[in-house]
Amino acid sequence: MYKALIACRAGEGYSLMLKIKTEQVIRENQLPIKVVHSSLDAVSDIQTKRNYQQ
Predict the structure, then answer these.
(1) For residue range 11-54, what is the model confidence (pLDDT) as tens digits?
(2) CB 3.0–4.6 Å: which of 2, 4, 19, 30 could bond 37 by disulfide?
(3) CB 21 within 8 A of CB 28
(4) How far apart are CA 54 and CA 38, in angstroms?
(5) Per residue in 18-28, is it b (16+ CB within 10 Å) or e — as a string?
């Protein structure tokens, strides 16, 4: 399974809206992709957590 990260800096929910639309396309095409969304400020936190989970 692949993972995709959608991030934005605007802080107005654009990454969540894009995540929802992206998941819709992924389901329609039955692709093995898990999508998460975040602000750009939190991306380094996600990377750190990922390293600890491996």
Answers:
(1) 678 888 999 999 999 999 999 999 988 877 777 665 555 544 44
(2) 19
(3) no
(4) 20
(5) ebeebbeebee
> Alpha-carbon distance 5 to 9, whole Å?
13
| Segments forming the whole domain that contains residue 40 | 2-53
> If we measure between CA atoms, which residue out of 15, 5, 13 comes closest to residue 35?
5
pTM for the whole structure: 0.69
How is residue 35 annotated by DSSP? Answer: E
Looking at residue 12, the DSSP 8-state letter turns out to be S
Would you tell me how many other CB atoms lie within 10 Å of the CB of residue 37? 20
